[in-house]
Amino acid sequence: MLTYVTETRKGQAAMAAAQNHLHGAAPLKLSHRISAAGEAVVVIDGELDIATTDLAVSYVKQVIDQHRGPVIADLAALSFCDAQGLSALLRMTGHAHRAGCSFQLASPSPALVKILRITGLDRRFPTSRRPT
Asked: What's the pTM value of the predicted model, to 2 decimals?
């Protein structure tokens, strides 16, 4: 089941949840909070793949548009990220850049860090160990 998804995306959320269930994929959970330092910390928990990227991007864009400040994507609970997931992260950072906000990845797994380095995307995403 997808959580914290906007009302306009409920149909897509149901479809993605059904696809995840059929494929045995981990559910995608999205949440956010504002840190003591004033950064929006978006937690992406589960799998970021073809079935979930549009919902994740939509959610993060909404956070960026509402917060209008620095955004940190907390990836500590991200269990899988494919090429579509990498593309989604690029779309998120592009939206943040156009909105005048910084966008940073926090706690990416060693496997994701390796993929970011291999693809050269590590230069596009500042990373940190853990969000504040």
From this structure: 0.79
Tokens at residue 59, please? 């959610």
Angle, vertex CA 34, rays to CA 32 and CA 40, nearest 5:
65
**For residue 12, what pLDDT band results from cuts at 50, 70 and 90?**
very low
What pLDDT, on the 0 to 100 scale, is given for residue 37?
93
SS (H, E, C) the chain: CCECCCHHHHHHHHHHHHHHHHHCCCCCEEEEEECCCCCEEEEEEEEECCCCHHHHHHHHHHHHHHHCCCEEEECCCEEEECHHHHHHHHHHHHHHHHCCCCEEEECCCHHHHHHHHHHCHHHCCCEECCCC
7-128 CATH, one of 3.40.50.2300, 3.30.750.24, 1.10.287.90, 3.30.1330.60: 3.30.750.24
Environment class of 12 (CB within 10 Å of its CB; exposed 0-12, middle 13-18, buried 19+): middle
Domain ranges, ordered by start, for the chain: 7-128
